[in-house]
């Protein structure tokens, strides 16, 4: 190595700027979790990393370094360097990192410098940045619990349009969007959810963004601790749940139309057509069969199948209301009523979307 190359450790500034990041860790490390806005262009692939790690344990650091250079040389080195050059040509403000900000990122940084591309690496690497993001989650939980930040929960029956309204409220944190899941039995999307670590990192990024604003409220949709395959930490979940509650009231017919649009029309677009969407929905129905009871499950399944047949024959989505309405009445609404009784926090206000939005805008202006 030649002269010392630049490092940065202002993690908040990196998050706020949504800085593009080059992650030179192996793919297996990247898949477990990465910093938002990161692209994985590894110095070593999984097998090469495994070989070097084994050599390090058996023969020490110097032999492991030598093996690493032996494994990544010639055309392979040139190919990987070219991919990094292309990344920084597209993202001249980008940064790079490895796991600890050590040898892998320094090596990648030096190769780039030798090729005339000087970039900074993140001091402490992924490990230090990840710790900063974990600390952000913990500090937010503490601030909500202690009242330094005000927690508000947007509640309402399924199909009320809570997620759509949430996007327009000051201080909103869209947990479902970050989790890539709608948070219900039928909430799975056509794409996979992020890893638990990626979910936490994305959530921390959103909180950092809000912390840089003068807004002292945080608004969350009423969620269970588990959102599909990811979850909130107990301290953060408990702090959120202790917040003040607002209820979005929407007429039943409007709720049915919201479900039709979001889960049926948009759902079929997500899954690439009627057949793939049908298979997904039938699997979801099977998961709640016990709660529906034998008769209820058979009735809803039949209504669902008939609606799909009619849609296929006529192109009309309207027949799906025949199963949406009883699903809301017989499954979701009783479950909502039961959960509502268990909440100790009083409802501060309730109303339609315009009323809730106006109320939260007012709260934001006086805090």
Automatic annotation (TrEMBL):
Pfam name, any one: AAA_SelU
Residue ranges of domain Rhodanese in the record: 15-138
GO BP: tRNA wobble uridine modification
Keyword Methyltransferase: no
SUPFAM superfamilies with a match to the protein in the record: Rhodanese/Cell cycle control phosphatase
EC number(s) stated in the UniProt entry for this protein: 2.9.1.3
Annotated active site: 98 (s-selanylcysteine intermediate)
Sorted UniProt keywords: Selenium, Transferase
Catalytic activity line of the entry: 5-methylaminomethyl-S-(2E)-geranyl-thiouridine(34) in tRNA + selenophosphate + H(+) = 5-methylaminomethyl-2-(Se-phospho)selenouridine(34) in tRNA + (2E)-thiogeraniol; 5-methylaminomethyl-2-thiouridine(34) in tRNA + (2E)-geranyl diphosphate = 5-methylaminomethyl-S-(2E)-geranyl-thiouridine(34) in tRNA + diphosphate; 5-methylaminomethyl-2-thiouridine(34) in tRNA + selenophosphate + (2E)-geranyl diphosphate + H2O + H(+) = 5-methylaminomethyl-2-selenouridine(34) in tRNA + (2E)-thiogeraniol + phosphate + diphosphate; 5-methylaminomethyl-2-(Se-phospho)selenouridine(34) in tRNA + H2O = 5-methylaminomethyl-2-selenouridine(34) in tRNA + phosphate
Matching InterPro entries: AAA_SelU, Rhodanese-like_dom, Rhodanese-like_dom_sf, SelU
Highest taxon of source: Bacteria
Entry's Gene Ontology molecular function annotations: transferase activity, transferring alkyl or aryl (other than methyl) groups; tRNA 2-selenouridine synthase activity
NCBIfam families linked: PRK11784.1-2, PRK11784.1-3, tRNA_sel_U_synt
Family, similarity comment: Belongs to the SelU family.
Function: Involved in the post-transcriptional modification of the uridine at the wobble position (U34) of tRNA(Lys), tRNA(Glu) and tRNA(Gln). Catalyzes the conversion of 2-thiouridine (S2U-RNA) to 2-selenouridine (Se2U-RNA). Acts in a two-step process involving geranylation of 2-thiouridine (S2U) to S-geranyl-2-thiouridine (geS2U) and subsequent selenation of the latter derivative to 2-selenouridine (Se2U) in the tRNA chain.
PANTHER family listed in its UniProt record: TRNA 2-SELENOURIDINE SYNTHASE
Subunit structure: Monomer.
Protein known as: tRNA 2-selenouridine synthase
Gene expressing this chain: selU
């Amino acid at each position: 190595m030649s002269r010392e190359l630049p490092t940065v450790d202002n993690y908040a500034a990196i998050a706020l700027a949504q800085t593009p990041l080059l992650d030179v860790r192996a793919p297996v490390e990247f898949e477990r979790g990465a910093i938002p806005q990161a692209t994985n262009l590894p110095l070593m692939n999984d097998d090469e990393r495994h070989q070097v790690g084994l050599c390090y344990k058996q023969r020490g650091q110097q032999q492991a370094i030598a093996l690493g250079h032996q494994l990544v040389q010639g055309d392979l080195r040139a190919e990987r360097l070219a991919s990094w050059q292309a990344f920084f040509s597209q993202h001249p403000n980008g940064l790079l990192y490895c796991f600890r900000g050590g040898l892998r990122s320094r090596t990648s940084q030096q190769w780039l410098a030798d090729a005339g591309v000087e970039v900074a690496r993140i001091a402490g690497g992924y490990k230090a940045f990840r710790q900063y993001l974990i600390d952000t989650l913990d500090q937010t939980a503490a601030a909500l619990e202690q009242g330094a930040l005000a927690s508000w929960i947007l509640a309402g029956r399924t199909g009320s349009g809570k997620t759509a309204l949430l996007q327009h409220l000051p201080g909103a944190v869209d947990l479902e969007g970050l989790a890539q899941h709608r948070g219900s039995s039928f909430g799975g999307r056509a794409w996979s959810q992020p890893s638990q670590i990626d979910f936490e990192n994305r959530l921390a990024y959103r909180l950092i963004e809000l912390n840089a604003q003068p807004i002292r409220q945080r608004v969350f949709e009423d969620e269970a601790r588990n959102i599909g395959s990811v979850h909130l930490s107990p301290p953060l979940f408990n702090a959120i749940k202790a917040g003040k509650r607002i209820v979005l009231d929407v007429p039943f017919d409007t709720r049915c139309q919201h479900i039709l649009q979001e889960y049926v029309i948009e759902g079929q677009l997500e899954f690439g057509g009627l057949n793939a969407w049908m298979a997904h929905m039938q699997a979801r129905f099977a998961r709640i069969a016990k709660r529906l009871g034998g008769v209820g499950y058979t009735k809803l399944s039949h209504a669902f199948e008939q609606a799909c047949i009619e849609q296929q024959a006529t192109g009309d989505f309207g027949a799906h209301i025949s199963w949406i309405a009883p699903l809301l009445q017989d499954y979701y609404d009783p479950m909502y009523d039961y959960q509502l009784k268990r909440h100790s926090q009083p409802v501060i206000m309730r109303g339609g979307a315009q009323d809730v939005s106006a109320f939260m805008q007012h709260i934001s202006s006086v805090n």
